[in-house]
């Protein structure tokens, strides 16, 4: 039995090592994340009137993930969102973290440093996820962001229009792209007859600029160029015909005859008086 003369491709201890992440590669990924965040922020600013300072509701799962991945939320989030932020939480979330004991003591300390927004559960506290959902009901009138690692809560938030979602992945904070519900809401606004024309135009320009929808070939209105003079005014004046000239002469003669008669009558009246 002949042995194969070809050398083994993989020998013991000579496996290929995975490619290392270079500094330039990490910087490129950071730039792409910033571009995506800027595009998503532009969508919420133009379509749902989000303004600085951005109100960010943070739950216990997000605080725990930030502590575990050594993320400074207060220092890093404003730079990522491109504006001033106000980190907020609720009493229900604080009570939930307190009930979980020492395992989430660090997350509780982080949440306690945020502003506490009043909720409708003063007497009967509810779970943190239920409390956050109640804070963004009725169209999210206070323009809250929701920062959570709870996948079930995130799925419920995506079913509502106009609620930006933040989460942590691979040691970085990520602003999720607009949900299909938000995109559909903007589409209905664009086609609705109740929306002013200037707002429709701003939505179209934003979607074309940020690549949120395919650009539709719209016909541009042609500007009215300065035209030439009126062709009727350029026509030469028609010469008067002989018949029209005769009529004018007759009219003039009639006027003269009338004047002669009146003068004769006046002279006769003077003679009678004398």
Automatic annotation (TrEMBL):
One of its GO terms (biological process) is rRNA processing. Its main location: nucleus. Residues 1-23, 207-274 are annotated as: Disordered. Residues 220-239 form the UTP23 sensor motif region domain. Keywords: Nucleus, Ribosome biogenesis, rRNA processing. One of its GO terms (cellular component) is small-subunit processome. Pfam families: Fcf1, UTP23_sensor. Transmembrane segments: none annotated. CDD domains: PIN_Fcf1-Utp23-H. Residues 207-219 have a biased composition (Basic and acidic residues). The keyword Ion transport does not apply. Belongs to the UTP23/FCF1 family. UTP23 subfamily. Involved in rRNA-processing and ribosome biogenesis. This is rRNA-processing protein UTP23 homolog. It comes from Phasianus colchicus.
């Amino acid at each position: 039995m002949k042995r194969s003369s070809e050398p083994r491709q993989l020998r013991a201890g000579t496996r290929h090592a995975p490619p290392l992440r270079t500094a330039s590669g990490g910087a490129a990924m950071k730039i792409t994340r910033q571009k995506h965040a800027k595009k998503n922020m532009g969508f919420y600013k133009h379509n749902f009137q989000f303004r600085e300072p951005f109100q960010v509701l943070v739950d216990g799962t997000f605080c725990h993930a930030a502590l575990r991945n050594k993320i400074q939320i207060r220092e890093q989030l404003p730079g990522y969102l491109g504006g001033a932020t106000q980190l907020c939480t609720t009493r229900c979330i604080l009570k939930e973290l307190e009930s979980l004991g020492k395992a989430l003591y660090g997350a509780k300390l982080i949440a306690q440093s945020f502003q506490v927004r009043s909720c409708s559960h003063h007497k009967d506290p509810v779970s943190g996820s239920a409390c956050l959902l109640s804070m963004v009901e009725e169209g999210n009138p206070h323009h809250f962001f929701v920062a959570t690692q709870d996948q079930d809560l995130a799925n419920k938030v995506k079913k509502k229009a106009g609620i930006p979602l933040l989460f942590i992945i691979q040691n970085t904070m990520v602003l999720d792209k607009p949900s299909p519900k938000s995109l559909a809401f903007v589409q209905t606004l664009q086609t609705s007859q109740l929306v002013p024309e200037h707002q429709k135009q701003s939505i179209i320009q934003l979607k074309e600029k940020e690549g949120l929808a395919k650009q539709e070939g719209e016909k541009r209105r042609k500007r009215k160029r300065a035209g030439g003079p009126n062709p009727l005014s350029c026509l030469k004046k028609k010469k008067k015909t002989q018949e029209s000239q005769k009529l004018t002469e007759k009219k003039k003669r009639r006027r003269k005859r009338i004047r002669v008669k009146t003068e004769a009558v006046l002279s006769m009246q003077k003679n009678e008086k004398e």
